[in-house]
Design a protein that fits this description.
Number of helices: 8
Bound molecules: 3-methylbut-3-enyl trihydrogen diphosphate, magnesium ion
Distance between the termini: 27 Å
Structural class: alpha/beta
Order of helices and strands: EHHEHEHEHHEEHH
CATH class: Alpha Beta
Oligomer: single chain
Strand content: 5-15%
Shape: globular
Helix content: 40-55%
Number of strands: 6
CATH architecture: 3-Layer(aba) Sandwich
């Protein structure tokens, strides 16, 4: 049984989970962070190579200031508490997104965690923080345009591979499997370019209720699928 090379998860439903319990949304974020830790460890133990977690979108800045502040505090605490655990688990930590928009001390903690785990050879763990795919693509286009202006590049040299290399995700393969919890069926500005041939798995479970078993169900579901990438069935191909 072969695991996907790269799993990406849109961890959604923390607020609704808390509201169902008559608790503030922040209560759901605390439980959600705990679940993220469990899923990271499970992916690492299974020998998965790449895991991207959508933690905070470029649009999440629009939430009430108190919720944003709470999420920043959670992230700060996570980095402080978990960096050494990541080292121990041989997990390499990296981020995508507009990190420069985060509070300065969190930027420092991210740089520290990234450097501290940079030699690790196990799971590549990517946190998408203040991440928006349109923003990412726009920046890539700006960089390419600049290189053309500097005459380093000609227009006919722009191809998919060049664009791929200007994206913040260029170090990893595209996600084979994108999981979104909480019954929402959309990308919400996550990995638009990279998801061209991703398989999608949606489940009703709210993120704070997501378990390692749910992850395994998603992985099994993925393994059974046939990916054709625009061609015809592999079976037809070999039999006729
Ligand atoms: C996902 O849960 C966590 C973040 C976006 C940070 P939500 O906070 O979006 O929870 P719902 O979707 O409102 O239930
Ligand atoms: C997407 O969830 C972002 C994260 C899970 C971090 P949202 O809850 O922000 O997405 P929408 O607003 O429902 O599309
Ligand atoms: Mg949501």
């Amino acid at each position: 049984m072969s695991l996907p090379q790269h799993v990406a998860i849109i961890m959604d439903g923390n607020g609704r989970w808390a509201q169902q319990r008559n608790k503030p949304r922040t209560f759901g974020h605390i439980k959600g962070a705990r679940i993220a830790k469990k899923i990271i460890t499970a992916c690492s133990d299974k020998g998965l190579k790449n895991l991207t977690l959508y933690a905070f979108s470029s649009e999440n800045w629009l939430r009430p200031a108190t919720e944003v502040l709470f999420l920043m505090n959670l992230l700060r605490r996570y980095l402080k508490k978990e960096t050494e655990n990541l080292v121990r688990q041989n997990i390499r930590f990296q981020t995508i997104g507009e990190i420069e928009k985060l509070p300065a001390d969190i930027q420092t903690a991210i740089r520290y965690a990234t450097d501290r785990t940079s030699k690790n050879t196990g799971l590549n763990l990517v946190f998408a923080i203040s991440y928006g795919s349109r923003q990412e693509i726009t920046t890539a286009v700006q960089r390419i345009a600049e290189r053309i202006q500097q005459k380093e590049l000609s227009v006919d040299q722009i191809d998919e591979s060049l664009l791929h290399h200007e994206l913040s995700t260029s170090s990893w393969p595209d996600p084979d499997l994108i999981i979104r919890t909480s019954g929402e069926h959309r990308l919400s500005n996550f990995l638009l370019w990279q998801a061209a041939y991703s398989e999608f798995y949606f489940c009703e479970t709210l993120w704070p209720d997501f378990t390692v078993e749910d992850l395994e169900i998603a992985l099994l579901n993925f393994i059974k699928r046939e990916r054709r990438f625009g061609s015809i069935s592999h079976h037809e191909n070999t039999h006729h």
